[in-house]
Amino acid sequence: MSQNNKTAARSRRGTNRVTMEDVAARAKVSASSVSLYLRNPEAVSPRLSPRIKRAIDTLGYVPNKLAGSLAAARTRAIGVIVPSLANAFFTETVAALQKEFDRHDYQLLLGATEYDLERETELVRTFLSWSPTALVVTGCYHNEATRTLLRMADTPVAEMWEIGEEPFHLQVGFSHVAVGEVLAAHLHQQGATRIAFVGARMEADRRAGQRRDGFCQALARHGITPLVIDTGNDVSPAAGGVALRQALKQQPGLQAVACANDVLALGVLFEAQHRGMAVPQKLAVTGFGNLPYSQVCVPPLTTVQPHAAEIGLRVAQELLAQLQRDEAQQQEDGDGADNNGNGGATKVVDVGFELILRQSSSQRFK
Amino acid sequence: MSQNNKTAARSRRGTNRVTMEDVAARAKVSASSVSLYLRNPEAVSPRLSPRIKRAIDTLGYVPNKLAGSLAAARTRAIGVIVPSLANAFFTETVAALQKEFDRHDYQLLLGATEYDLERETELVRTFLSWSPTALVVTGCYHNEATRTLLRMADTPVAEMWEIGEEPFHLQVGFSHVAVGEVLAAHLHQQGATRIAFVGARMEADRRAGQRRDGFCQALARHGITPLVIDTGNDVSPAAGGVALRQALKQQPGLQAVACANDVLALGVLFEAQHRGMAVPQKLAVTGFGNLPYSQVCVPPLTTVQPHAAEIGLRVAQELLAQLQRDEAQQQEDGDGADNNGNGGATKVVDVGFELILRQSSSQRFK
DNA sequence: TTGTAGGCGTTATCAT
DNA sequence: ATGATAACGCCTACAA
Question: pTM of this prediction?
Fold first, then answer.
């Protein structure tokens, strides 16, 4: 083993992997027949196909998607970027995406930004390097670098959980400003005038900020200026409790607290109970999210239900439909057209939300 | 444009993607230098590196991971397979995995089996076709096909959420039999003798079955045979309610109900309340999972806390450590050794669980 | 229907 | 340090 081998001299790696060529050799056919068989079993003669099948089975052949995707210049993978997986909303959406895409044989590449826009840019760049079939990102507010990346990529881009801004190809979500407005209207209708809004991470989580803005603006139209309290990065019942204490100090006659999410609201409920402040008689409390415990806590919590699963489902369906259209059109164009993976149309879907009235805000103030 | 072009004649696709070659041309260096720069910027002379950097930036070059991984025969991707993403336990684990692997620049490929072992096989096969750096699966019970696939792959395999069976490379989890035993011991200690176990999907969800088995066996040692009720595929509070009704019909003097999860337990709680059966005075109730609402429901629920996030973290850490070891060893071997990506050692980590005693089972029976 | 050959965009080897 | 050049494993236009 020194210098008298010319061809296989520079074998680079062990790579003991079973290849298509191995299968072909075993079945005594050419590699392209195997390839064809794999993609369209009908197209190969009934004489060869059992031979090929048997060779695949006995060798335990697993096709190499990397090579396949490289050659075919497309990958059956969908990149999904969410702010956080610690958040039940997003996991629910991801579950729906996974389920629907899985049915159509697409893989999910998953990433979390932790609410950091720079991190999002990195993730987008990484995902694009996989040549995914499509990219799904959360929200429609991105930094310049991300927008450029997304615009230049010849990949359909779906934005979810929020609508607004200029869409890339698809937006599926709802207006968080409207959520704030609806909650404000509800509390105002209950006769509350001394009102606080308790939120967390509202600079980083733009959607939370929008809910706050909608809330404040709507009340402003009634001449009410709510007290706004930001618990910073702390999204826990404890933080909600602290916020209520703070709010009561600043405004002793407080009548209503709208929380940016159910977790904080639960803390407000606990703290109110702790100081003997009856809910809803003395204090109305609302949340956002309709988490499972929100209907079993005492008293049950008025909240807003976002359609998390539906968002995922719609995103997947729309994207799948668009991909199908692209494919059909590409067939038509022949090879020449330089179509950029965008069917041309951009679509915006508002899935809305639901205000769920429960006991925690059922009292009328006079 | 007909027949007088020899070289570029068969360009197969538009593929307008910016390639490494483009960058090299722009920077007036060879592609190898660009590749080198990308992988180890220090190794290239300070004269070239700024030129390369600028070319990359102006062209907006995004490396093609498919090509890179194919050439390098490895992929910075980790395949993760869980039974379901609708299940908070697993999403928590996935979140932890994502976070830890992300820190080390690995992508997550995500799949869900919906508790179907055949589906698992398919997913494993698909994931293997991506040449992932490692594979993480849930549970250590697989069908023969899956086991073969996993054994033949030269990829480290981690099994999580369960320990037992023969491990492939790594197991991180806890004994579900022990969970059942501990719950049984608790209820027995409270003096309960007429006991029911309410579970769902216990054939498909092997871990739920193990909890039941541990529970029944432990009670059997005290001469008690619990009534076992299976709600089938229905994992909802409503199913829990139905189960309680059924149990009371079969055993009117029922004193305690252990549920396979908190969701069912919540339903049992509701139903008991509905029929004026005081918990815990007349009926002890326990769950599994320690979901957020379990401490705020009335009465607070005795349950078992699995360390979902810790499982994910440990899996990632152990896997990362093993990969590092493999890499080091590979360096040592030179090229010759046919090491199969297994550091050789197999490791089993029991992360345990925690019994959380609350009011729903605090009553002593006599 | 089946086979042949060139190319997909990298990495890694080797020579300079 | 830099640059040719051969793999990597598969797809696909084209020829047979």
Answer: 0.88
